[in-house]
């Protein structure tokens, strides 16, 4: 019987603990952690993500501010807002919701956010620290995957982890964290050959591709732990539903443990954003 890795439950307990840690931090420092979330434009999915992030931040006991800018915002206007947040001592974490409208440069904004307030962990300084194995602010989705893996498997040392996807926000930081946890790590991507055979060698298989149900049951080693990062909206029978990058029904016949979509990696990502915000506040206040 496969074990379901319940991201909702794990994230709820992470947020509960975080609220306790936050109360203690506030009592010791008299500072309330502040998270500023910036949303440019009207993308419906981004609006939902931002709403959830602000809601969770408030539940964790943070001051949370939402900054909405219109779709046609120019680079100078967005840069000015980020610079203002950088120099605001009540803001400890800044998140600019991606993707940005096409006229705006994501790399420019990511570089502009003060590294100590970069709760997404995307600033080059934080990316470098992650590669060197000493990062404090770690990209939220891979951090959430690691928490779930440690709760499921305990020590990850020596396990063969295969990461499908090499994006800067998921695949690459995921591989770096698995390496840091002493896994043997293989990354596969759209130019890799014989992906199925490589996946079949995985004790830990992380799918971050963005292709609905690409990973089939026959790609998975019996007993493997499967983490499905993918969130894909598909139409079936006239209804829209979310599926992952893993064919859940097939793979759960083979895997030892698996995350569902929705209710797996997604809730963990938001919980880890809150963890990063408290970490950022701690570092800035030095409690
Ligand atoms: P990207 O599109 O940035 O990256 C996808 C990666 O998959 C690329 O490295 C690409 O390879 C690789 N890829 C594409 N097609 C194939 C293929 N046929 N075989 C092997 N590799 C392939 O996506 P993200 O990393 O941003 O996101 C991945 C998924 O995770 C999406 O569904 C996204 O919605 C979801 N997501 C979920 C989050 C959560 O909180 N649960 C957070 C972030 C993302 P190449 O580099 O060669 O192009």
UniProtKB/TrEMBL annotation:
Catalytic activity line of the entry: (6R)-5,10-methylene-5,6,7,8-tetrahydrofolate + NADP(+) = (6R)-5,10-methenyltetrahydrofolate + NADPH; (6R)-5,10-methenyltetrahydrofolate + H2O = (6R)-10-formyltetrahydrofolate + H(+)
Q: What is its EC number?
A: 1.5.1.5, 3.5.4.9
Domain Tetrahydrofolate dehydrogenase/cyclohydrolase catalytic span(s) in chain numbering: 5-120
UniProt superkingdom = Bacteria
List, for all copies, the residue spans of the domain called Tetrahydrofolate dehydrogenase/cyclohydrolase NAD(P)-binding. 139-284
What Pfam family is a match for this entry? THF_DHG_CYH_C
Keywords in alphabetical order, please. Amino-acid biosynthesis, Histidine biosynthesis, Hydrolase, Methionine biosynthesis, Multifunctional enzyme, NADP, One-carbon metabolism, Oxidoreductase, Purine biosynthesis
Q: Which residues bind NADP(+)?
A: 165-167, 231
Query: Which segment of the chain is annotated as a signal peptide?
Result: none
What GO molecular function annotations does the UniProt record carry, in alphabetical order? methenyltetrahydrofolate cyclohydrolase activity; methylenetetrahydrofolate dehydrogenase (NADP+) activity
Pathway info = One-carbon metabolism; tetrahydrofolate interconversion
* Subunit: Homodimer.
Its job:
Catalyzes the oxidation of 5,10-methylenetetrahydrofolate to 5,10-methenyltetrahydrofolate and then the hydrolysis of 5,10-methenyltetrahydrofolate to 10-formyltetrahydrofolate.
Family, per entry: Belongs to the tetrahydrofolate dehydrogenase/cyclohydrolase family.
| Protein name listed in UniProt | Bifunctional protein FolD
Q: Which gene encodes it?
A: folD
């Amino acid at each position: 019987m496969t074990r379901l890795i319940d991201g909702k439950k794990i994230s709820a307990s992470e947020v509960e603990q975080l609220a306790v840690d936050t109360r203690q931090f506030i009592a010791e420092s008299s500072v309330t952690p502040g998270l500023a979330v910036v949303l440019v434009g009207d993308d419906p999915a981004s609006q939902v993500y931002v709403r959830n992030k602000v809601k969770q931040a408030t539940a964790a006991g943070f001051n949370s501010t939402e900054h909405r800018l219109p779709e046609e915002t120019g680079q100078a206007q967005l840069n000015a807002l980020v610079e203002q947040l950088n120099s605001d001592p009540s803001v400890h974490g800044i998140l600019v919701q991606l993707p940005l409208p096409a006229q705006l440069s994501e790399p420019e904004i990511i570089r502009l956010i003060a590294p100590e307030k970069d709760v997404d962990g995307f600033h080059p300084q934080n990316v470098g620290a992650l590669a060197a194995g000493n990062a404090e602010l770690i990209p939220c989705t891979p951090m959430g995957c690691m928490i779930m893996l440690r709760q499921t498997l305990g020590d990850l040392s020596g396990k063969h982890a295969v990461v499908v996807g090499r994006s800067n926000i998921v695949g690459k930081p995921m591989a770096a964290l698995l390496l840091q946890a002493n896994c043997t790590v293989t990354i596969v991507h759209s130019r890799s050959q014989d992906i199925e055979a490589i996946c079949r060698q995985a004790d830990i298989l992380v799918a971050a591709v963005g292709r609905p149900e690409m990973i089939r049951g026959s790609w998975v080693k019996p007993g493997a732990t499967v983490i499905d990062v993918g969130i894909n909206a598909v139409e079936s029978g006239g209804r829209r539903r979310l599926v992952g990058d893993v064919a859940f029904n097939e793979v759960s016949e083979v895997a030892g443990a698996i995350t569902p979509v929705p209710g797996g990696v997604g809730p963990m990502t938001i919980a880890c954003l809150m963890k990063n915000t408290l970490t950022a506040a701690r570092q800035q206040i030095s409690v």
